[in-house]
Write a structure and sequence with these properties.
Oligomer: single chain
Bound molecules: zinc ion
Number of strands: 13
CATH architecture of the largest domain: 2-Layer Sandwich
Radius of gyration: 24 Å
Helix content: 40-55%
Distance between the termini: 10 Å
Structural class: alpha+beta
Shape: elongated
Strand order of the largest sheet: 2-5-6-1-4-3
Order of helices and strands: EHHHEHEEEEHEEEHHEHHHEEEH
CATH topology of the largest domain: Nucleotidyltransferase, domain 5
Strand content: 15-25%
Number of domains: 2
Number of helices: 11
Length: 365
């Protein structure tokens, strides 16, 4: 079984240039291959396979000599990613593959690690054409067990993600401990892929109730009256108190999550907001979702951990056990699937967020 380990790496300026250029070339190839598949389908009524595209690769490289600077294995992985994107689409797990811009093509994968070659120098990872890149952590893995190397650019930093072969026993605990997905719900503030639900604590609910009451009282006071001014002041104080309480609570949650995990995956709220209706948008604001993300992000960054935002499409409808789409509206609290899985709907979503995050990091489960 495979587990994943992640380290910050520190490429030199020159290496970083090369990495960016490699990303650019890989993305160009990805988009070219996608275009090729679309055109082929239009012309012949059937798509291209991975094998067919791989066979075209030598000709493409001849026509584009700049690709000499990228290992063939890395380029083959580009085509494999596209093939996976199509498979996910055909299996109804994702939308039709899209052309990628530089914000959505952020990693390269070396699918076959060679221990001596790639990890021969202590404290470095060697990538052909790029050089020995410094790993910013003590190496606590066995290089001979590393299967694939993935290098990812995220939020101004570079990471190396290794998939490592381990015995089955260890695998579960490591993955569980290291990576977490978080779904920001409506009934609870957050649900995690570990099955934890962070609900709105009762004292906070109480304060919020008080706040609402004070608001009602204010509307009953006569405009311009002294009492109204007094009530206004009281209300402002209450507002501040509730805001503080909520912030403290979110600090506590985010501290806990970051402390116990190395990769934190959350939904991209910008996308999520766009998908939802107005009523929901209001409760989003209430629950302080954006604030929780912000706290998670800066704490993760401070601790050298990975924080990643994923596309929330399908995360609540898809079964985290088997991949089926199980449609349910917001009132349905439990995810129940034909495959036998029956869990809290937000926890199911959180597990999907985790999977999507790992996939984006190039750690395919
Ligand atoms: Zn299922």
């Amino acid at each position: 079984m495979m587990i994943c380990k992640h380290f910050l790496i520190e490429p030199t300026k020159e290496q970083e240039e090369k990495l960016f250029y490699t990303l650019y070339l890989c993305r160009k190839l990805y988009n070219y291959s996608l275009d090729q598949r679309i055109k082929h389908y239009k012309e012949y009524g059937k798509g291209l396979t991975y094998e067919e595209q791989q066979n075209m690769l030598p000709k493409y490289k001849k026509e584009h000599p700049e690709y000499k600077t990228v290992q063939s294995q890395i380029l083959q992985d580009v085509l494999r990613r596209l093939d996976r994107a199509y498979k996910n689409f055909f299996d109804k797990r994702a939308k039709y593959p899209k052309f990628k811009d530089r914000y959505h093509y952020t990693s390269i994968t070396l699918p076959q690690c060679e221990a001596k070659r790639n990890f021969g120098k202590e404290g470095y990872v060697y990538i052909k054409n790029i050089g020995h890149i410094k790993i910013k952590a003590h190496r606590n893995f066995d290089p001979t067990k590393v299967k694939t190397i993935n290098i990812k650019y995220h939020a101004g930093k570079w990471y190396i993600n290794l998939s490592i072969e381990v015995e089955e026993e260890k695998e579960k605990t490591v993955i569980r401990k290291k990576a977490i997905g978080i779904d920001k719900g409506i009934n609870s503030i957050a649900a995690t892929s570990d099955g934890e639900l962070y609900s709105n604590p009762r004292w906070l609910q109480k304060s919020e109730k008080k706040l609402k009451k004070a608001q009602r009282q204010l509307s009953r006071k006569k405009k311009g009256s002294k009492n109204r001014e007094k009530q206004k002041k009281r209300l402002a104080k209450l507002h501040e108190k509730v805001a503080n309480q909520r912030r403290d609570y979110l600090h506590k949650i985010s501290y806990n999550i970051v402390k116990h995990n190395d990769i934190i995956c959350v939904e991209d709220l910008q996308v999520k907001n766009m998908m939802k209706n107005h009523k929901l948008a209001k409760s989003i604001a209430n629950a302080g979702w954006g604030m929780l993300d912000a706290f998670l992000e800066y704490k993760a960054e401070r601790e050298g951990k990975i924080f990643i935002k994923v596309n929330p499409a399908y995360t609540s409808q898809r079964c985290s056990g088997c991949g089926r789409i199980v449609e349910k509206d917001l009132s349905v609290r439990v995810h129940k699937c034909e495959c036998g899985l029956e869990i809290d709907r937000d926890v199911n979503a959180a597990i999907n967020v985790l999977y999507e995050g790992l996939r984006q990091l190039g750690i395919t489960a």
